[in-house]
Amino acid sequence: MEYVFPLKQHVGVACEPVVTTGEEVKRGQLIAEKPENALGSPIYSSICGKVTAVGETQITIEEAGTDFGKYEPLKGTTPRELIAESGLVGLGGAGFPTSVKLNVQFKDEGYVIVNAAECEPILSHNIARIEKEPEKLLKGLEIVMELTGAKKGIVAIKEIHKEAIEKIKKVNSNAAISVFPLENIYPMGEERAVLRETLGILLEPEQLPMAANAVVINAETIYRLREAVEEKKPLIDKDMTVAGKLKENASIHVLLDVPIGTKVSKVIEEAGGLGAEYGELIMGGPFTGKRTELDAPVVKTTGGIIAAETFMPGPEKIGLLVCACGADKERLEQQAASMGSEVVGVEYCKQAKQVKTARKCENPGRCPGQVQKVMALKKAGAQAVLISNCTDCSNTVMSCAPQLKLPVYHCTDGAMRSVNYKMIRRFRKE
After folding, report:
1. pLDDT digit string (tens) for 119-155?
2. Which of 291, 364, 370, 429 could form a disulfide with 193 if both were Cys (CB 3.0 to 4.6 A apart)?
3. In this structure, are residues 111 and 199 in contact, taking their beta carbons and an 8 Å threshold?
4. Number of domains the chain is built from
5. pTM exceeds cut of 0.85
6. Residue that finishes a domain, picked among 212, 231, 250
7. What is the 8-class DSSP label of residue 54?
């Protein structure tokens, strides 16, 4: 079986191959390294096998009798060396090299905040890992606190995950570490939303957590960091959620330690196999995931594979309302085309501020209202709106669009329908 390793799986530049076609490699062996003095992260083989192709964008390896319990250990001796050598990046989807993020030293009281929100609906693997091994989460947090000189650690987790919270509290003996329960809305796991809730500080869209004297790090990143430091294990495996239109219909499966480079088709087979009908395959979560294919490989930042429900037919003309917290314009255009609808207008949430090449919300999850935007789409000739709004923004859309006789579709509809979850529309607190 072939495994595929793209040379760019992270923020920064692509890696450069250090193996050649025909070469035998071992699990955990370096196969591509970042260029010197460039932002990037090395890549390791997750299997034992033979290199069958080395291209400009990827390396292909044919598996040969992998023992997934073994791997080539890292060579570093200090935590910082091991983290940099491991190839670890932000595993919540951003993919920023972890060694660079942790290249800080707090002078005063600093905070390390574990983002364990499991922000996207359906995705369940972070919580499953915490429930299984809470002590390893805390150990990883302690390592980062020591590296950065932070005086306090916080595990930020949605309050609905009561079992995970209790298990963390049960094994926590460090008075400097606390658990902070988050509200169960999207995008409560957005970095600045986490800081706003835990520290009471709302950063500007272009500001980084260091402006709040904090580092925010994803839960699985913390687990893999501990592996690198204590077990000298490179980043070669990935936890993920596989869900949707599978043979066991409307099902959600958590797969732990899936070898990076595994094809989507194999991951789905391990979760029981693909159902007869589906609309699209999504890599990632319902809000921010991208369309993928069966031959695509799992990469460092893969958090989920969702076989979405078949697309509902849309109206002849549709308007797009783009939120910085959800699917971007291109993704909504793709979905509109699959619905058979012509896009006649595009509007952006009034809080979606342009920051360099992307848009970021000025106050994630706190919406000021979308009436003007919806009315503009109506004026453009839209017969319905397709939105990518967060929970609170969806509330405001639903307060006006139906009154304008505009049906509302959401970028998450296919994913949510595939597991029989309630679709994102009006949100009411219990």
Report:
1. 999 999 999 999 999 999 999 999 999 999 999 999 9
2. 364
3. yes
4. 4
5. yes
6. 231
7. E
